């Protein structure tokens, strides 16, 4: 059933991405989004300020991405993948477990993920300090 949802989102990709774009822009003015027709993806950039530190966020959201729709990055050379810091090998953020945390037969809309970026940054900063991930996690 989930594959049928993905296929429908791929078939109606522009409408699907337009809805995602509208919802995010309505609620998060720090993020600027555009739909890239060539890659059939919603692309975003923005600066997120946490505790006086600016984090440059870059994202891509598309039903054509393999495994999960989101690819969310923090453009900071000091943030690099390790097996313990909740990043994927491409340095995109691991914000949820793609099988356990997703609602059954559904996708996670981008608007739900945006607040998780701030949470990830806070947990990452604790991880740097204590070398233990203090946030919720599922070992994988």
How would you describe this protein?
This protein is of the alpha+beta class. The protein is 33% helix and 21% strand. It has a single domain (2-130), classed as Roll (Ubiquitin Conjugating Enzyme). The protein has helices at residues 2-11, 13-27, 110-130; strands spanning 31-36, 41-50, 53-61, 70-74. A 4-stranded antiparallel sheet has the order 1-2-3-4.
What's the layout of helices and strands?
Layout: H1 2-11, H2 13-27, E1 31-36, E2 41-50, E3 53-61, E4 70-74, H3 110-130
Antiparallel strand pairs: 1-2, 2-3, 3-4
Helix pairs in contact: 1-2
Strand percentage? 15-25%
Assigned CATH architecture: Roll
Question: Please, how many helices?
Answer: 3
Which fold name fills CATH's third level, the topology?
Answer: Ubiquitin Conjugating Enzyme
At the first level of CATH, the class is: Alpha Beta
Mean of all residue-level pLDDT scores = 91
Computed CA radius of gyration, to the nearest angstrom: 15 Å
| Biggest sheet features | 4 strands, antiparallel
Contiguous low-pLDDT stretches (5 residues minimum) are: none
> How much helical structure, as a percent, in the residues?
25-40%
Structural class: alpha+beta
Adjacency order of strands in the biggest sheet = 1-2-3-4
Write the H/E string, N to C. Answer: HHEEEEH
Distance between the termini: 24 Å
Morphology: globular
Strands, count: 4
Number of domains: 1
In short:
The protein has a single domain, classed as Ubiquitin Conjugating Enzyme (Roll). Helices cover 33% and strands 21% of the residues.
